[in-house]
Specification:
This protein has six helices and seven strands; from the N terminus they run H-H-H-E-E-H-E-E-E-E-H-E-H. By secondary structure, the chain is α+β, with helices and mostly antiparallel strands. Strands 2-1-3-4 form a four-stranded antiparallel sheet, with helices on one face. The chain has a three-stranded antiparallel sheet with strand order 6-5-7, sandwiched between helices. The chain is globular, with a radius of gyration of 18 Å. The relative contact order is 0.12.
Length: 203
Amino acid sequence: MQRRDLFKLPLVAAALAAVPASVPAQAVARCEGEGTPNQFIPKTPKDANPLENELQKYPKCPYCGMDRSQYHHARHLVQYADDLVDGTCSIHCLSISLAINLDREPKAIYAPDNGSPDAIKPLINVDQATYLIGGGTPGVMTKRSKVSFGSQASAQAAQAKTGGELGNFADALTASYADLAQDTLMIRKKREERRRHMMKKAG
């Protein structure tokens, strides 16, 4: 897999290139040695062994705040070449990390093995994963689920029960970017409804 080409999807590159002229120069300040805006740098220290005590070090998704232990079956983790790490709740939020860190080369990306019987699904390299895209399984941060498995046989068994299409990580990531607009609208709507409900209760 040519990772650098994969993450520079035309849709993402076009969206990120559209920085309004009205944005102050300091708001798009560059990081030393590469092009990622400062506000998008992963905030945790560099980590050469990100899978060690992973859920303790990266308990919350940095993009939506969701608990990664609760959503262990959907969580992803990317270790960039400079050993900065983003632990996300889902491939939806992973796709955000990869999009806004276009100049940061991924060293490794991990996804959960939903074929494992373990109470907390173990992470595997996405190069080894088979994804079940769509079908009847509920998605995390997305209407169309992208569920990872450590073996094709496990993915096929799940497909027989829920439907959907099998693919690799590139297929799942492409589907995630294709769904991003509608999923973002869906998430914003749900959060606004939750805020209104809380304000109604408080009032």
